[in-house]
C-alpha cells in the first residue's frame, strides 16, 4: 500500500479518471485537477465511443479486447451501486470495409491469436447483411465537390465483421462513472482549476501552481491533460527524449438520421469503418446515425496551436465532407440542410498510438496522444499507468525492461513498451484515427 505517496493526475477525462481509480485502488493519495467543471467535459464528451478491435499490433488488439470485457459489465467492473446511472455498451457488431492499408489477412491473424470471433464477408454478403449499402470500391477518398468523387466504383468491397464490437452510449457519463469509483476509492477531484506553473524541487517533489494561486505538491504527477498535454510537458521540462510527438487536432462528428433499413426489428445496425471513402459511422438509439472522418489525405487536417481557441461548433465544410461520403456509401441517407453534431479536439500522436509511459524527469508520467481512438481502451489505460507508476516508483527500469500486463480474459501478456515515448514508430499503422 502507498497511503503516504501522493499523486496528482492532471485531467479528468476518461483516461485521467481511469488512472486515478487504479492508483487510488492501489493505496496512493490521488488528487485529480481539471480546468473544466466536471469529469469528461473535454475531448471525452466529443468521442464517438466506438468499440472495435482492429489494430495493427497484437498489443493494440489485446488492449481493445480486454477492455471490452470491462465495458460489458461496467457497473460490476467499477463496483458502483445499482442506483447510480452508468454508461451502456451497445453490442451492435463492427464492420471494417476492406482497405489495402489495413489488410484483412493481417487483422484476421491477430484475431486468431487473441481468440476474437469474426466473419469474413464477400461483397454479396455485405450487401445482404447491411441493406441499402453501396459495396463499391472508390479508394482513394476524393474531395466531395470534385468530379472524381462522383466517378463510378472500380471494384467491389468485402468486409471483416466482429459481432462483439459496438459503442458506448454516453462517453461523458462513462468518465463520470470512473470518477465516482475513484472517489469511492479515496481520490479527490479539483475542478475549475488550471495549472499555471510546474517545477520540480531539489528533493524531487513536483510543485504545481494552480490558477487560484494555491500550490499542490507530490512526488508523482501523471499528465492526462488531453490536447493540453504538450503544454503541460513544456511547463515541466519534459519531452527531450520523445521519439513520438503529440499535437492538438480539431475534429467533428455529425448527427443525421440513419438510412432506411439500416436498423431492423432485431436491433441497431452495426458500426462501420469505411476508410475506402474516408469516414466511419455508428447508430444511435432512436434512429440516429453518427458520422465522423478518418482523416483522408484529400482533406486538410485542422491542427490547433491552442486548444482554448478551437472552434467547438460544427462547420458546413466538415459536415458536407463527412456526411456526403456517408451518403455515397448509403444512397438512401438523407443529407439535412443544416449541420448537426459536435466538434472537439484530439491529442494526436505522430503515429496515432498513445503514449502510456514514464518520462526522463523522475516522478513525471504521461497518458497522452490518445488520438481519438483510445476511449474504448480507457479501462486498461488506467491499469497500464498504475502498473507503470508502481513499478517505476519501486525502482523498476521500465525503459530497458518494459512492464508486462497480463490480460484477465486471455491470460496473454501485453508489452507496455509498445506505448513508450521512445518507441520505434509503427510502420503498419494506417496513419489515421483508426490506428
Q: Give the helix proportion (percent range).
A: 10-25%
Radius of gyration: 21 Å
Q: What gross morphology would you assign?
A: globular
Largest sheet: 9 strands, mixed
Strand content: 15-25%
How would you characterize the overall build of this protein?
With 435 residues, this protein is of the alpha+beta class. Helix content is 23%, strand content 24%. It is built from nine helices and 23 strands. The protein has helices spanning 14-25, 58-72, 74-78, 104-114, 123-129, 171-184, 229-236, 316-329, 378-393; strands spanning 6-10, 29-33, 50-51, 89-90, 94-97, 119-121, 159-162, 166-168, 188-190, 195-200, 206-210, 215-218, 220-223, 246-257, 271-274, 279-284, 288-293, 302-303, 341-349, 355-358, 364-368, 404-406, 413-415. Strands 5, 6, 7, 14, 15, 16, 17, 18 and 19 form a nine-stranded mixed beta sheet that branches. It has a six-stranded mixed beta sheet with strand order 9-2-1-13-21-20, sandwiched between helices. Strand 16 and strand 17 (288-293) form a beta hairpin. Helix 1 (14-25) packs across helix 9 and helix 2 (58-72) packs across helix 9 (378-393).
